[in-house]
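Posting for a labmate who doesn't have an account.
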Amino acid sequence: MQAILAIDQGTTNTKALLFDRTGAVVSRASQPVGVTYPQPGWVEQDADVIWRSVTAAIDACLLANPGVEVTALGLANQRETAVVWDRATGRPIAPAVIWQCRRTAAVCDRLQESGQEPEIRRRSGLAVDPLFSATKIRWILEHVPDALARAKNGELCAGNIDSWLLWKLTGGQVHATDFSNASRTQILNISTAQWDRELLEVFGVPVACLPTLRDSSGIYGVTEGTGTLPPGIPIAGVAGDSHAALFGHAAFAPGLVKATYGTGSSLMSRVSGPLESANGLSTTVAWSIDHQVQHALEGNITNTGGAVEWFSGFLGLPGGAQEAAALAASVDDSAGVYMVPAFAGLGAPHWDAHARGLFSGLTRGTTAAHAARATLDAIAYQVADVFRAFRQDSGIDCAAMLADGGASGNDQLMQFQADIIDCPVIRNESGDVAACGAAWLAGLATGFWQSLEELETLPRSVRRFEPTMPAGRRAALLSGWADALHRCRTASR
């Protein structure tokens, strides 16, 4: 049997999956990835450990189904995480700076205070925020001795996780990135789809260290071979995980909004071209096929599922996030308690790097279950803020929201989400939508599948959640959430 191997490299785990011609998963494996917090607001990973998690996941996946012939490899990856490595040795020169890291908040403040944000947003499509890669790359180059000079001389490579894994998978033969990942760096011009000279100057990133820009679907190179992965397999699909998930939902045309519920969350919708948001959303590249760059609007939320993980650790729950979710399900509501998980500031649509998390509405009657419910509800409230911004920017009254990712498996959360946005939520029952999108992109490039129309016909299992909450109740809850947001933003000033 022939299959596509997909790698989904996320913040806390790496998955490897095999997809057959019907789009079904025939084998999967997962490996955890550690995250470190060396200082308040700092978040790092070891890029070599990420690479070892990839090889371990691939080995376990292929060994579980040894008769499969792998015809191509697709890659989806955590985005905005910056890696800088030595071109000659292939060794990282510093820890990878993770997308959640806020160490460059002061740099972003200076750019805003100097009045440069409007032009940066016009060129890149992105608000000035520590989330994006450019300030992270510059930080590494400034804090490692001789790194900036070496980067200017082309002795160093810089990129996001897709570039790092492409380099490792090809044995150092390919330093490239796809347009979706490049659009998250803040140094790609969203209109011309090229590295932008002015932005490179603003952020101080030498073009000599940057990867080559490539289509999301197309042959990048072939595998060098490692462990059970044979050499010569074409690497033919690359996309950031949120973009890959949009593709895996078959949301190929404008008008559909998907929400991926992970450590953080991303809402994304295809648009017909670069569209400037008036409501705190980012303009980004959805994907590129046959040299045709397709655009999207996106809203990034820093902590959603990660907030539940934090809460379970805070209470010392041995069952982790699952036990926290069960605790939340034991009460009908949060009893007026709100939790704002602004551990590293607020992302879209608020973009406040200085906001900090809080609980509000606590009384002597508040229980751990109410706090757990408030933490889970916070996911839905944050998604609702971004969903409302999509409606305002696009002018489209969305018929439904497409959902995927780990936390979307919680039925209580999905029902509350439908209620609070007053719109049906359609959950993809597969937990592997981003990996599916990466496999589809690779399969299109290699003829495994022939067209987008063929991909649309592949079977998908979904569940629909309809809103049932009375309008008055919804309005009261959203008013309480707005008050909690105000408190978390003013308390940090």
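Reply:
Got it, the structure tokens are right above this. The mean pLDDT is 93.
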